[in-house]
Every structure is written in C-alpha cells, then in structure tokens.
C-alpha cells in the first residue's frame, strides 16, 4: 500500500498557533482584494457622472459585477474572521490549561518539599528554646534593673527636722557654758594672758638672787 500510495506524511501536525497564523494571512489577502474592488467601484462611480446612454448602462453593469465580487470577498472574510476568533478562544483555553497544569505540578512539588521540611521541625525543641529565651530575657531584665539602681548611704539621708533640733540644742549649750562664752568673747586680749599654772606659782614673779643684787647696785 505504501508503494502504491506513498508513505504517510511526516510533516508536523498543525497547531493552533500555525492555523491562526494561516488564517490571519488569508484575511490579510482578502483585505487587499476588497480594497482593490473599492478602488474600481470609485472609478466606475466617477465615470458614470460623465456618461450617457448605452455607455452608462455598460459601466453600471460592470460596477454591479465588481460590487457583487466585493460582497463575496467580504462574506468569505467574515467567515474566516469567525474561525480565527474560535481558534483564538481555543488557544486561550489551551494556554490556561497549560498554566493550570504547571501550577498543579508546582504545588505538588512544593507539597513534597514542605513535608520533608516539616519532618525536620521538632515542636518540643522549639518550645524548649522559647522557654529558655523567656528565662534569659527575665534574667537580662533583672540585671538591667539592678544596674540602674542608685547607691544609697547606709542609714539613709538625715532628717532635716532632726538637724534643726540638734542645731537649736547646740546653741543652748554654747550660751549655757561660760568657758565657751569666754573663748568666744575673749578674742586677741586673752591670747596675751599667761596660763593659770604659771601665775599660781609665787616664785615666778620674784627675780633670782643674783639678779636682785645687780638690780640694787644699779639703783644706788
């Protein structure tokens, strides 16, 4: 059979993209033909304005044939346009389906990867780490609070009222003690006075015997 009718065609099967491209090319060719018919119709229309009698009738018949041919071309173009729209819709559906399949495959792969990763996650270990972090945070807060505390003098600050009372009592003691008053009022005059233990000795003011004789001789 193959020797009689030839072997099967090895040409690649047409795809939607190829078919759409061919239709667009065919529609473009029809547009060129329709444009040529329009040019001829304008020429016939201009010519009929200057003609009379049989020539006008022949020109009108020719214009009618061109118009009928243009209508057939327009109908063919409309059918091809519908086919192209259907193929474009099919191409869009195919693209969407291809994208959906790719999305599903990606989700399956991601699901496998997530399962492997979740097997490596230990929830108990995570909870222990969280507990340790909370404990460390508490210790850190306690350390910061301790460092921010001020240093206080033992016994605390003296009471101002107690200081006022002690100052008043000290004033009473000063005025009640005569010795303190003499020290306060004597001033520089008391500094020249001899101490009591020197003035109490009677021999301190008497001159020595030799010195007394010399004094008498000088007096004579």
Automatic annotation (TrEMBL):
Gene3D superfamilies assigned to the protein according to its UniProt record, in alphabetical order: 6.10.250.1710
Keyword RNA-binding in annotation: no
Keyword flag Repeat: no
TM segment ranges: none
Superkingdom of origin organism: Eukaryota
Region (Disordered): 1-21, 178-220
Short name of any one Pfam family annotated for the protein: Snf7
GO BP terms in the entry: late endosome to vacuole transport via multivesicular body sorting pathway; vesicle budding from membrane
Keywords assigned: Coiled coil
Entries under InterPro entries matching the protein: Snf7_fam
Cellular component annotations (GO), alphabetically ordered: fungal-type vacuole membrane; multivesicular body
Coiled-coil spans in chain: 63-90
Family statement drawn from the similarity comment of this UniProt entry: Belongs to the SNF7 family.
Protein name: Putative snf7 family protein
Organism annotation: Eutypa lata (strain UCR-EL1) (Grapevine dieback disease fungus)
Lineage of producing organism: Eukaryota, Fungi, Dikarya, Ascomycota, Pezizomycotina
């Amino acid at each position: 059979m193959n020797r009689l009718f030839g072997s099967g065609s090895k040409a690649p099967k047409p795809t939607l993209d190829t078919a759409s491209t061919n239709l667009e090319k065919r529609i473009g060719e029809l547009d060129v033909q329709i444009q040529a018919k329009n040019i001829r119709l304008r020429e016939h229309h201009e010519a009929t304005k200057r003609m009379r009698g049989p020539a006008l009738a022949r020109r009108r018949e020719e214009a009618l044939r061109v118009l009928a041919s243009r209508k057939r071309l327009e109908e063919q173009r409309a059918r091809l346009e519908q086919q192209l729209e259907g193929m474009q819709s099919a191409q869009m559906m195919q693209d969407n389906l291809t994208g959906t399949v790719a999305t599903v495959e990606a989700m399956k792969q991601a699901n496998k990867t997530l399962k492997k990763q979740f097997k490596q996650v230990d929830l108990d270990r995570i909870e222990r780490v969280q507990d340790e972090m909370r404990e460390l945070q508490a210790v850190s807060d306690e350390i910061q609070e301790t460092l921010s505390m001020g240093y206080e003098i033992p016994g605390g600050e003296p009471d101002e009222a107690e200081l006022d009372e002690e100052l008043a009592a000290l004033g009473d003691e000063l005025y009640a003690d005569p010795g303190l008053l003499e020290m306060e009022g004597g001033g520089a005059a008391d500094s020249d006075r001899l101490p009591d233990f020197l003035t109490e000795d009677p021999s301190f003011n008497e001159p020595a015997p030799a010195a007394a004789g010399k004094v008498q001789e000088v007096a004579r």
